[in-house]
Design brief:
The complex is a heterotrimer of chains A (about 120), B (about 160) and C (about 675).
Chain A (H helix, E strand, L loop, with lengths): L3 E5 L3 H13 L3 E5 L2 H10 L4 E4 L8 H10 L8 E6 L5 H8 L3 E5 L3 H12 L1
Parallel strand pairs in A: 1-2, 1-3, 3-4, 4-5
Helix pairs in contact in A: 2-3
Chain B lengths: L2 H4 L4 E9 L2 E6 L3 E5 L5 E2 L9 E5 L2 E6 L1 H4 L12 E9 L2 E9 L1 E9 L18 E7 L2 E6 L1 H10 L7
Parallel strand pairs in B: 2-11, 6-8
Antiparallel strand pairs in B: 1-2, 1-9, 3-7, 4-5, 5-6, 7-8, 10-11
Chain C lengths: L2 H27 L4 H20 L3 H18 L7 H19 L7 H13 L8 E2 L13 E7 L10 H10 L3 E6 L17 E6 L5 H7 L5 E7 L16 E2 L43 H28 L2 H24 L1 E3 L1 H18 L3 E6 L4 E3 H22 L3 H6 L6 E10 L2 E8 L6 H10 L11 H6 L22 H10 L3 E7 L3 E9 L4 E9 L2 E6 L3 E6 L13 E4 L2 E7 H4 L11 E7 L2 E7 L1 E9 L13 E6 L5 E5 L1 H8 L15
Parallel strand pairs in C: 8-10, 15-23, 18-20
Antiparallel strand pairs in C: 1-6, 2-4, 2-5, 3-4, 7-9, 10-11, 11-13, 12-13, 14-15, 14-21, 16-19, 17-18, 19-20, 22-23
The chains are: A alpha/beta (about 120), B mainly beta (about 160), C alpha+beta (about 675).
C-alpha cells in the first residue's frame, strides 16, 4: 500500500523538493500552499503523514495543526513541523498543538527521508 | 589394478556405462553416486583430460573426460547422460573424481576368469590405461585402470602458462 | 539540486523580492503596522529558508541577521525605524547578486551587516540551552532492562508504538514483553492513549543517547535500568531531554540569559560502579578437531546463507530479504569470530627454532646470532603446524650451507657472529615470513651449472637471476656437494615448496653472492573463508581475494586492442602491467567495449587483471581443488556461489608473477623443468 504524505508550505520550491524526494522514494505526495489549503486537503483525503511549515499566510502551521486535531479524521496522523533554529519554543508549542515531531531547516533529502521513515516506519 | 591383482578374486561386481559407442565397466566399490548432469565450470589451462569441476553437494569435484584419456570418439549425448562420482586412488591418497557417462547401464557381477588382456594388435586405446576387457552381451566391455589413468593425469605436466 | 528546482526557486525569489520591497516601502510609511512587519518577516524567513535549502548558504547567512532583526521587531523588542527599513532595502538589493554568485568588491554586504548589528546592540541574544541527561553509561556485562510507556494522547498524534519497537529491535532489544496492567476496560478505554507499556532487554552497549533518539518524536516515559533495579516507582523522574528557553532581557541591560523551566532530573538508577576488569589471559583449551568442526560448519553456513540471499532476491519478498540480510551479517560475524579463534602467534614455533640454531651453531662451531622479529604475528593454527618442518629445513640450510666458518668471515671482513633473522609480518591478505642470513650467498653460476649437468635446462638457456634461484626448488636438485648428516636427508627444497604451496602460499629466494641469502614465504592469512570479489570474463565467473585488490579502474579505450609489446597502465604516474584474463583463459567471444581492470597486489608487486565486468563482493568459502588441478597455478581454489555454480578462485601471487616479466607474448615460453 503506497503511503501518502501531505506537504504544506507556501514556498513552491520547497514543496517541489519535498515532493520529488518523497515520490522518488515511493511515497505519494499531496501539496498544499498554506494552512487553510492544508486543512481542506487533509480532511478531504486520508493521508498517512503531514509535513508542514510554520510561517504561512492565511493559516500558519500551528493553527493548521490545532484545527486539524479538532476533527476525528485529523487525529492519529503523524505531523512533522518544519522549524528554523531561530524559532525557540516552537518545538514545545508544536508538540502542544498536536504535532508529533519536527525537522530543522535547512534539511537534506536524506534527512527528510530519515524523518519520514521514523514516523511512518 | 592389473589383471594379476584380480585373479585371486573369483567375481567382480561392476557398473557398466557407455562412452560413445564403447561400453566400459568400473568396479562398483569405486562408485559413490550417480547424478543427473550438472553445470560444469571450466578450469582454464587444465587441459582436455580434466577440463572442469562440478559442485557435488558442496564439494568441488574435478570432472575428467575419459573419452579423451581413452581416445574414444565423442558421439554426442542425450537424456541418458549422467555424472558418475568415483573414489579413486590418487598419488597414494583417496580422492573423489567425477566422470561423464553417456549412459549408465547396470550393476552386474562378472567372473574374473573371462577378463582378457588387451590384444597386442594395433588399436586406439592407450594400453597402460586399460586393465583388460571381456565379452559382454552386446559386445566387448573395457575395464579401465582408473588408478593408473588418474595418477598419470595428476603428474602430467600442465601447460606452463597457467 | 536539479536545474528544474533551481529555476523554480529563482522564480519564487523574484516574487519574494517584489513582495519584500513593497512591504518595506509600505512599512516606511506606516511603521506601526504589525501586519506589515509580519509580512516582511515571513518573506525574509522564506528567502532564507529556501535559499539554504537550495544551497545558497551565503544568501541564507546574509539574510539571517535581518530575519532575526524583524523577529525582534515582531515581538516588540525593537521599534521600526527608518534606518532599519533602509538597511533592509539595501540588503534586498544585494540578494540577486548573492544568488548569482557576484562578488562584492566594495564590501557593501559587510557594511550593511555591520550597520544592522549597530542598530541591534543592547538587545540580548536569545540563548537556547538543551539540558542533556547525564546518565552513567556504565556498561555491565549483562544487558539492561528498558521500560517505556507512551504518555498523553500519543496515538492521536500519530505515534506508532510498533515503529518504536522496531527501532529498539534495531538497537538489539530482545525479550520484549508488553505490560497490559494499565489497559482499562472497554468502556473506559481512551483511544487516543496508548495504555500498553513495554519492557525489554537492551545490550549493555546501548547508550542513553541512543534510546533517546528512538523516543525523539514520541512522548514517552522510559527508564534504562540494570537487571536488579527493576524499579518502576523511581520512574517518577522520567528522563527526557528538554529545550530550556532563555528569557530575553530588555534593551538596557547586559545580555543575560537565565534558563527557566524544569530540566528533568536524572533518573535514579542503581549505580553498579565500574565494569569488572576483564581477567587477564583467561583462556580455555579446546581440542583442535572441535575448532575444525566449527570451521567446517561455519563454512557450510556461509554457503547456505548465500543460497538464501539468492532465493530472497528472486522472491523479492522484503521481509525475506531483510531476514536474509540479517543472517548474512550474523554469518559474517560468526565467520570472523571463528577465524580469530584459530589464530596462533608464530611465537609457538620460535622456541623450537632457537634451540635448533643454538645446537647447530655449537656443533658446527659457527657463532650465530638469531634474531626474531614479529613473533606475535598470528597465523591459522593449521598453517603454523605445517610451517614447522619447512622452516626448520630452511634454517638448517642457512646455517649449514649459507653460513661461513669463522675464518672465512674474518677473511671477508664480516663480524665474528653470523646473523640469522627470522621475521614475520602481515601484508594485506598475506603473512610474509622471511629467513635472512648474512652468509656467503648463493652462487648463480654454480646453480646454473648444476642444472645443466642434471639436464634440467639446456646449456644455452637464457635465465634471469630469479629464475636461476627458482631452480633450487626443482625436484632432484641439491645445493650441497655432499649430503651432510644435518640436511639433505631426503627432505629437499622441492618438498619445502610443495608444502608451502599446499598451504596456497609461495616461496622465493633472493641472494647476493658474498653478502647473504633471504628466503621469503608468502602465506594467505586464512585458509577457509575470505572476502571475495566476483568478476566475469567471457561469460565465466571467477573470484579474487578482496584483500589483495587495490583498486578497480576502467580499461582506457586505447588499451582495448592488445599490443605485441607488454601492456601497461599508467596509474597515477606508475606503470602497472596488466593481463587480459580473456586471452589468458582463452575465453570465447569478443571482448565488450567497456572492460574493467582490477589492480591486485602481492608483496610489493602489482598487476592489473582485465575483466569484462565486476559482479560484486561476497563471502567466499574456499574449497580445495583436487590434485588433478594442482598444476594450474593460476587457480588457488574454488568456491560455490549462491546459485550453486562453482567459481574458481584466482591465485594473485601467481598472476602477479606472470605480470612481472613484461614483453613476453606468452609467459609459457619461459624454460623451466618439464
Amino acid at each position: 500500500m503506497t503511503k501518502t504524505v501531505l506537504t504544506v508550505d507556501d514556498s513552491p520550491s520547497i514543496r517541489r523538493m519535498i515532493a520529488m524526494t518523497l515520490q522518488e522514494a515511493g511515497y505519494a505526495v499531496i501539496e498544499a500552499v498554506d494552512g487553510q489549503d492544508g486543512l481542506a486537503k487533509a480532511l478531504a483525503t486520508p493521508v498517512d503523514a503531514i509535513i508542514t511549515d510554520q510561517n504561512m499566510p492565511n493559516l500558519d502551521g500551528l493553527g493548521f495543526i490545532r484545527a486539524l486535531r479538532q476533527h476525528p479524521q485529523g487525529k492519529g496522523v503523524p505531523i512533522v513541523v518544519l522549524s528554523t533554529d531561530s524559532e525557540e519554543g516552537l518545538k514545545a508549542q508544536a508538540r502542544e498543538a498536536g504535532a508529533l515531531g519536527w525537522m530543522v531547516k535547512p534539511f537534506t533529502q536524506d534527512k527528510l527521508l530519515a524523518v519520514i521513515k521514523k514516523v511512518l516506519g | 589394478m592389473n589383471i594379476q591383482d584380480l585373479r585371486p578374486e573369483k567375481h567382480l561386481t561392476v557398473v557398466t556405462l557407455a562412452l560413445g559407442t564403447q561400453t566400459l565397466a568400473v568396479p562398483a566399490g569405486m562408485l559413490r553416486e550417480i547424478l543427473d548432469p550438472l553445470p560444469v565450470t571450466r578450469v582454464p589451462g587444465a587441459g582436455a583430460f580434466v577440463p572442469g569441476v562440478v559442485n557435488v553437494r558442496g564439494s568441488v569435484v574435478p570432472l575428467a573426460d575419459l573419452k579423451q584419456a581413452l581416445s574414444i570418439p565423442d558421439e554426442g549425448h542425450d537424456h541418458r547422460q549422467r555424472i558418475m562420482v568415483l573414489e579413486v586412488q590418487l598419488l597414494g591418497e583417496a580422492a573423489t573424481v567425477a566422470i561423464q557417462a553417456d549412459a549408465v547401464h547396470e550393476v552386474t557381477t562378472i567372473d574374473t576368469a573371462v577378463i582378457e588382456a588387451l590384444p597386442t594388435t594395433a588399436h586406439a586405446w592407450p594400453p597402460e590405461f586399460l586393465t583388460g576387457l571381456y565379452r559382454g552381451s552386446a559386445g566387448f566391455v573395457l575395464l579401465p585402470n582408473l588408478t593408473q589413468i588418474f595418477s598419470t593425469l595428476a603428474t602430467r605436466p600442465q601447460a606452463a602458462a597457467l | 539540486m536539479t536545474d528544474d528546482m533551481a529555476a523554480i526557486f529563482r522564480e519564487e525569489l523574484r516574487d519574494l523580492l517584489e513582495s519584500l520591497e513593497r512591504g518595506l516601502l509600505d512599512l516606511k510609511a506606516r511603521p506601526d503596522d504589525m501586519g506589515l512587519v509580519n509580512q516582511v518577516f515571513r518573506d525574509l524567513h522564506t528567502v532564507k529558508g529556501s535559499g539554504a535549502m537550495f544551497g545558497f548558504t551565503d544568501l541564507a547567512a546574509f539574510i539571517h541577521e535581518f530575519e532575526t532583526g524583524f523577529d525582534r521587531i515582531r515581538s516588540g523588542a525593537i521599534p521600526v525605524g527608518a534606518e532599519i527599513v533602509r538597511l533592509a532595502l539595501a540588503a534586498k538589493d544585494e540578494i540577486p547578486g548573492l544568488v548569482d554568485g557576484l562578488p562584492d568588491p566594495d564590501g557593501r554586504r559587510p557594511a550593511i551587516l555591520a550597520a544592522l548589528r549597530g542598530l541591534m546592540t543592547g538587545v540580548a541574544p536569545a540563548v537556547e540551552v538543551e539540558a542533556v541527561m547525564a546518565g552513567s553509561d556504565a556498561a555491565t556485562a549483562e544487558g539492561r532492562r528498558l521500560l517505556f510507556r507512551l504518555i498523553g494522547p500519543s496515538l492521536a498524534m500519530g505515534a506508532r508504538p510498533e515503529i518504536v519497537l522496531d527501532e529498539l529491535r534495531g538497537l538489539g532489544a530482545t525479550d520484549i514483553q508488553a505490560d497490559i496492567t494499565e489497559v482499562p476496560s472497554l468502556d473506559r478505554l481512551d483511544s487516543e492513549q496508548c495504555h500498553i507499556g513495554w519492557t525489554m532487554t537492551v545490550p549493555a552497549e546501548v547508550t542513553e543517547a541512543q534510546v533517546e533518539e528512538v523516543f525523539l518524536f514520541t512522548d514517552a516515559e522510559w527508564t534504562l535500568a540494570s537487571h536488579a533495579a527493576d524499579d518502576m516507582g523511581a520512574r517518577a523522574d522520567a528522563v527526557e531531554a528538554v529545550v530550556t528557553e532563555a528569557v530575553i532581557e530588555t534593551l538596557a541591560a547586559v545580555p543575560m540569559a537565565a534558563p527557566s523551566a524544569a530540566a528533568k532530573p536524572i533518573a535514579s538508577r542503581e549505580d553498579r560502579g565500574e565494569t569488572p576488569a576483564p581477567q587477564a589471559g583467561a583462556t580455555i583449551r579446546v581440542p583442535a578437531e572441535r575448532l575444525d568442526a566449527l570451521m567446517d560448519a561455519v563454512g557450510e553456513l556461509v554457503i547456505v546463507e548465500a543460497r538464501l540471499t539468492e532465493l530472497a532476491r528472486q522472491n523479492r519478498d522484503p521481509a525475506l530479504m531483510t531476514t536474509a540480510e540479517q543472517i548474512t551479517r550474523l554469518a559474517a560475524g560468526l565467520r570472523d569470530a571463528t577465524m580469530t579463534m584459530r589464530m596462533v602467534p608464530l611465537r609457538s614455533l620460535v622456541g623450537r627454532f632457537r634451540r635448533l640454531v643454538l645446537d647447530l651453531s655449537d656443533s658446527l662451531g659457527k657463532p650465530i646470532e638469531f634474531a626474531v622479529l614479529g613473533e606475535d604475528t598470528e597465523l591459522d593454527k593449521t598453517v603454523i603446524e605445517k610451517l614447522a618442518d619447512p622452516l626448520v629445513h630452511i634454517l638448517r640450510n642457512a646455517i649449514d650451507h649459507g653460513m661461513e666458518t669463522q675464518d672465512e668471515r674474518a677473511a671477508s671482513d664480516k663480524g665474528r657472529m653470523g646473523l640469522i633473522e627470522l621475521s614475520a609480518q602481515h601484508a594485506g591478505a598475506e603473512v610474509l615470513i622471511r629467513v635472512r642470513d648474512d652468509g656467503r650467498g648463493i652462487n648463480p653460476d654454480r646453480i646454473r651449472a648444476k642444472a645443466v649437468a642434471q639436464g634440467m635446462i639446456s646449456a644455452d638457456a637464457q635465465l634471469t637471476e630469479n629464475q636461476i634461484f627458482a631452480l633450487i626448488f626443482e625436484p632432484g636438485f641439491s645445493t650441497a656437494e655432499a649430503v651432510t648428516e644435518l640436511s639433505g636427508r631426503g627432505v629437499g627444497m622441492d618438498v619445502v615448496r610443495r608444502t608451502i604451496e599446499s598451504l596456497r602460499g609461495s616461496i622465493e629466494v633472493e641472494s647476493k653472492l658474498g653478502q647473504g641469502t633471504s628466503v621469503t614465504l608468502r602465506l594467505p592469512l586464512t585458509l577457509a573463508i575470505i572476502e571475495g570479489l566476483l568478476i566475469e570474463v567471457a561469460g565465466e565467473r571467477y573470484t579474487l581475494p578482496m584483500a589483495s585488490v587495490q583498486e578497480i579502474v576502467e580499461l582506457p579505450a586505447d588499451k582495448v586492442m592488445p599490443k605485441r609489446s607488454g601492456d601497461f597502465l599508467d596509474i597515477r604516474g606508475r606503470f602497472v602491467p596488466f593481463l587480459r584474463l580473456r586471452t589468458l583463459f582463452e575465453g570465447a567471444g569478443e571482448a565488450p567495449a567497456e572492460q574493467n581492470v582490477v589492480i591486485v597486489m602481492s608483496g610489493e608487486n602489482r598487476v592489473g587483471i582485465v575483466v569484462d565486468r565486476i559482479i560484486g563482493t561476497n563471502q567466499t568459502v574456499i574449497k580445495q581443488m583436487s590434485k588433478l588441478h594442482a598444476g594450474v597455478r593460476a587457480v588457488s581454489g574454488a568456491t560455490i556461489l549462491g546459485d550453486g555454480s562453482v567459481a574458481l578462485i584466482l591465485d594473485v601471487a601467481h598472476l602477479v608473477s606472470m605480470g612481472r616479466v613484461p614483453g613476453e607474448p606468452n609467459p609459457a615460453t619461459r624454460e623451466v623443468a618439464a
